[in-house]
Amino acid sequence: MTIAIAQPARTGNPGIVPPWLQGPRPITPNPTTGEPTPPAPQPEVPTAATRDALVAVPLSNGQIVIVDVPAGMFPGGTHEAPTSRRGFGAVEGARGGVNVQREQQRIDDTVASIQAAYTKLGITQREGNDPVKAYFRPDFPNAAYAPEGFSDYDLPADSIGVGIDPRSGHSFAEAPDVVAHELAHRIIDHMTPSKLSMSPLSEDVAVHESLADTFAAMVDTDDWTMGEQLVEPVRIMDHPERLGHPGHVNDLKTILVPGGEHMVQVGTDRRTGEIVEAPDWHIVAGIPNKAAAIIGTELGRAKMGEIYLKAVRENVRPGQEVEGLAVAVLQSAKDLYGAGSHEFQVTKDAWDAVGVLDLLKDQAAAAPRR
Ligand SMILES: [Zn+2]
After folding, report:
1. pTM passes above 0.85
2. Among 143, 179, 233, 295, which one is most buried in terms of CB atoms within 10 A?
């Protein structure tokens, strides 16, 4: 199958993200004169208020931190459109009453048990399953793996930060699958032959997020819901639609609309001052998540885990987008079980059910023939 290779991350990319989502938003015409009104220039360096909603947050000092709850979670933001019903206030209310020592102990226990479960699946220390420190930070309205640290919340390099869910006031430490997801980000970074991009304009982020959810589902096996302990779950892998997330490629055109709640502001165009938006990749991950959940439901999580671990170790490459993840997983299922196997058929059917197989067929048809 032909894989469409993405453009370099900073130029945005084609593929699963439709063209109308790429590039800056159009300038709004002035209602009285009809003249285009140029927007006020925006600061080029993200401030605390503008860096909240990103999946991978570039800080002013060049650090990147991967955050996991979208939109409007920091106070004083210019684009506070929380996916929550309660907004940021819950953190303010909860952090005074939280027992930091108890939460830290809970996180340490969770990290130890999840790392042991990853070890049981054959994930080695060299693959990013070596001892790692996770810190409870009551003023951090998120959970994150911070490969380069996150000084705002006193998180050292290569650590995990666990804070309070701003939607509910619950500690993210209550959700072992959220902790498993953050540990998985670290593993994926070590396990892929070369690292996926975490640029907020790269669809690689959707691949990273979906794989982190899928890895968490290998060790937290009670359901396909991430963060079911929180008032509102973070993601529902088998039914992303229940949270308004896409479960099929066709859903993207209604879910990812410019200025909509699932778009995040990732910066400003240097020439025009226009705000540049990108999809919230956690949301786009609903599509590959559903494929993984179908595979895991049909074949069991052990086989799903074997297929995905082999795919990440051997076949997942940067710049190949969600379609590339599908190709990697299909290749892995074929290598493990054979082209005529039930397992390979289930894997194909799963990616077909979410519309990605059709994208691959279209790309193969469009490829130049010799
Ligand atoms: Zn994540």
Report:
1. no
2. 143
